[in-house]
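Contributing: when you submit paired examples, paste them exactly as shown. First protein:
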Amino acid sequence: MSDKELASAIHCDRICFNYTDFLSASCKKRWSLVDAIYGVLPIFGMVTRKSAHSLQASDEHLKELALQIISTQVSDEINIARLITLAEQQHISRFDIQLPYPLSGQQLDAIQQEYRKPLTLSQQGDLLCVSIPGQSH
């Protein structure tokens, strides 16, 4: 699976995560004990494995971090909230998530409750547009 499939090219200063491809890659991943711990406690993994040399993450770096936190063992809402947290930690304030289907209003509310900080979520079909206020690009 290529990097472009997992975190597609930046379009107009906006990254697009392909959520379905992340789930597929997560299913195929061979998990070590450390990976399993990071999967259960993703914030620990994001903090300890965060690259100190670059404030803006490359596509490869974002892919690696996202694969650490996406899990088929939790709901889509939790996974999406984890992706939003990852983006915030990487100083990404606006990005899109390509989903296999549009989310319901209830699912969008669950994402906002899980993330627990102000953010704007909007949908255009199966594309979820995320904007985190107060973040610089």
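Second protein:
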Amino acid sequence: MSNALRSLVVRRWSRHPRCVGLARGELSAALESWGLQALWDPAALVLSELLTNAGRHARASPGREIETRFQPVGGGLRIEVHDGSEVAPQECKPDEDACEGRGLLLVSALADEWGFGERGGPGKVVWAEIGLNRRTDGGDGGGA
């Protein structure tokens, strides 16, 4: 088995909101084992937003699980959230006083890159990559 595959952490979650915290625990353990703890703050927020969006907005059958994948890549981290819905995520510009709708704007600000695409099976994958150098040098969240 290659080192890259041994470093891949794959977990499945229900759509219940409590799974977001459980997934953050898995991410924390993975970051510690890879020596990437410096990425915790942006990675935890990105994971929380992507997983929450999948649970709330991915119009998939009740009971269908959501899959997360974490993997170190090029001195940083790749987070993937797989769900059974083919509905594409959409950034929106909420009203100033809105309580929701800023998740993907936050992901855009924290990740070096993010996107979505097809996956092997029904649904889609939404992914984000966070670079170690960018996150620890006081970067402004702008493009890479």
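If you have annotations for the second protein, write them as plain sentences, like these:
The mean pLDDT is 82.
The longest strand covers residues 121-131.
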